[in-house]
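BUG: 3D viewer hangs when loading the predicted structure for this chain

Environment: internal workstation, default settings.
Expected: structure renders.
Actual: progress bar stalls at 90%.

Input used:
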Amino acid sequence: MQSFDIVVIGSGPGGYVAAIRASQLGLKVAVVEREQLGGVCLNWGCIPTKALLRSAEVKHMIDNANRYGFTVDHYQIHLEKIVERSRQIAGQLAGGIQHLLKKNKVTVFKGYGRIEKPGLVQVTDTTGHVETLTAHHIILATGARPRLLPNMPLDHPRVWTAKQAMTPGFLPKSLLIVGSGAIGIEFASFYQTLGSQVTVVEMQNHILPQEDEEISALAQKSFTKQGIQFHLQSSVQQLTATAEKVTAILTTGEQKQEPIQADAVIIAIGIMGNTEDLGLETTKVQVDKGQIRVDAWGATAEPGIYAIGDVAGAPWLAHKASHQGIACVEKIMGLSISHPLQPGNIPGCTYSLPQIASIGLTEAKAKAAGYEVKVGRFPFIGNGKAIALGEPEGLVKTIFDAKTGELLGAHMIGAEVTELIQGFALAKSLEATEADIMHTIFPHPTLSEMMHESVLDAYGRAIHF
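Structure tokens produced before the viewer hung:
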């Protein structure tokens, strides 16, 4: 039996960050991981998908090379090399996590972690060997897994979750994607750019349901122009797969049934927390709809047990998990610098072509919350850097409280907006008003100038539009 101050179960972006921060604060820390260090994000999510999307961006540039003064006569897509590059990057970063944990003197146990009782964790490795760990505090960072359709044919080579979609054995000529959240849209963009005919099915009346509807409408217009087809207010009632095809029976808003065939299907209808077989029945930890209930610092109803990241509920984002992990550990230590997680200050990004990024309230939610709002907009076509890049399509939208000048939300679509959104995240974190942003000097020529102009527009002061 080994004793630790903190045992973290799971080594994703929440778990390993929490472990490192705890070690920095002088605690004796262990991490339990049953699969690969770095969790789903690093190995099968955030990082490898961005590597795939980078390859799609390169193809997009080649296809449009003539706009920049180049002629490319012939090229070939080597899907296996695209996938290989993605896997190599994931492997490299997983090795980096191992190095960071070792550097910070975090003990790693390979195996399945289970709470025997509060303060006691059992780790079972692949050989069946059991190691018992005691801990003053236990942090659950077990992540989540894809939510599946009822009666979905599992383990079929043409029926994919995100994991299989990242390592395809073939490039489908036609592809059906169920779900139009960030995961579904990113894969739609990747495969459409590589040449697949993509069809997306979404239950809501607009794609990217968490985004501002104006931005969602612009995104759908752009994707449709690229050739992606959408079935909104529709759901898959039946899914069958053969050696050659996948057939889905759709039910639309009018309750009409329509069959769709494709070479493959990706299920991207959300995720559910990994709460099973953790020994939670021996504790006071509460689980609601596959998510562990926690307070703003990640504490559960059981003293000494915490949950962070995807297993603790939406938003299911790596940076939320990391921030939550640090806040949780600093709260355990009683540090005054610990601040509770503020969901309204968490940016969200979709790395498609075009990119989408947002933070805070949408216009509709701001109005529904009772705010009198001022809304500013600035289009990419009015920005010199965007035109020079050959990326004139896009929009920056900002939403302010008309009474106080508080930045309630910011929403973007266009080139590199996933990098730009951090400017508004910083503004919200610092509680900046419209005046603070207006008085900030933005460099020229940059895409970031559109952020400034959007704020100016909200108050009738835009210069270049």
